[in-house]
């Protein structure tokens, strides 16, 4: 337990002072009673110890004063459930076929992995991290966790041959992961603690949900979506295809981003 105003606890010194003052007043009352009594009548006075119940009102007063002073210091306790509502960052990796391109060394997917590790090195340890990969469909690779080693071990290293790019579906899926991790928020609260970090090399060419529709969904849940774009505009990638029932290797244009962009996620 901690106190929001710990300096007010010094007021508890008033409790023993009040107890001492009460004892002094009782002694003074006894001496004054003896001074006003006649010597001839003293043998007829019945002496007995005061009843213990006589001290109950004073004791209750001191206990109430103690609780009042402690209340002024505003005691507080951080519950374990607060830890469960820590913000979640979902690393959303594009693993479509074009991510195997070598225009960014060694490949786009490995460059994205390297950038993600750099990001994790700077991300405060109190934030949970999840990993989602997507080509034609999104997939949860790592559920929200505080274990950074397990996250890094599961970061993708290879692209999906002939895989499309369903950016909208991936963003919607990542938002759902954050909402599920946040659990039940307080009454009237719309804020979900988390953010989506998208690592991709191009525009959408698969999936049902468009990036615009996914952005609206993220906005409804107050979840920011940031992106790191990877690749160059005129790169090519070799993909396996079937022509006349035979497997062949063909080269396709793998249009990527013109430049990499930095990302700063504010979760506070």
Give a description of the structure.
With 268 residues, the chain is an alpha/beta fold. It has 2 domains: 2-76; 84-254, Rossmann fold (3-Layer(aba) Sandwich), CATH 3.40.50. Helices cover 34% and strands 21% of the residues. It contains 7 helices and 9 strands, in the order βααβαβαββααβαβββ. The strands form 3 sheets. The chain has a 5-stranded mixed sheet with strand order 5-4-3-6-7, sandwiched between helices. A hairpin with a 2-residue loop joins strand 8 (235-243) and strand 9. It is rod-shaped. The two termini are 24 Å apart. The relative contact order is 0.14.
Task: Break the fold down into its secondary structure elements and pairings.
Elements: E1 2-3, H1 14-35, H2 56-72, E2 75-76, H3 81-84, E3 88-94, H4 108-122, E4 128-134, E5 138-145, H5 148-153, H6 167-182, E6 194-200, H7 211-220, E7 225-229, E8 235-243, E9 246-254
Parallel strand pairs: 3-4, 3-6, 6-7
Antiparallel strand pairs: 1-2, 4-5, 8-9
Helix pairs in contact: 1-2, 6-7
């Amino acid at each position: 337990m901690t106190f929001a105003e710990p300096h007010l606890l010094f007021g508890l010194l008033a409790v023993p002072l009040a107890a001492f003052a009460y004892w002094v007043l009782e002694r003074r009352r006894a001496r004054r009673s003896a001074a006003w009594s006649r010597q001839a009548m003293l043998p007829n006075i019945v002496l007995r110890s005061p009843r213990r119940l006589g001290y109950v009102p004073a004791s209750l007063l001191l206990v109430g004063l103690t609780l009042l002073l402690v209340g002024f210091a505003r005691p507080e306790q951080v519950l374990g459930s607060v830890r469960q509502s820590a913000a979640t960052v979902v690393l959303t990796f594009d693993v479509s076929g074009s991510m195997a391109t070598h225009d960014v060394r060694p490949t786009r997917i490995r460059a994205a992995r390297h950038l993600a590790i750099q990001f994790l090195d700077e991300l405060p340890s109190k934030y949970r991290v999840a990993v989602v990969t997507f080509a034609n469909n999104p997939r949860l690779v790592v559920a929200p966790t505080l274990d950074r080693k397990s996250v890094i071990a599961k970061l993708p290293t290879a692209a999906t041959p002939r895989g499309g790019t369903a950016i909208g579906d991936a963003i919607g899926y990542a938002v759902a992961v954050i909402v599920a991790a946040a659990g039940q928020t307080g009454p009237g609260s719309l804020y979900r603690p988390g953010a989506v970090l998208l690592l991709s090399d191009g525009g959408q060419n698969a999936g049902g949900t468009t990036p615009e529709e996914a952005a609206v969904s993220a906005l409804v849940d107050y979840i920011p979506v940031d992106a790191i774009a990877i690749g160059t505009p005129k790169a090519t990638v070799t993909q396996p295809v079937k022509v006349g029932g035979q497997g062949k290797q063909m080269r396709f244009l793998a249009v990527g981003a013109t430049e990499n962009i930095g990302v700063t996620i504010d979760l506070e």
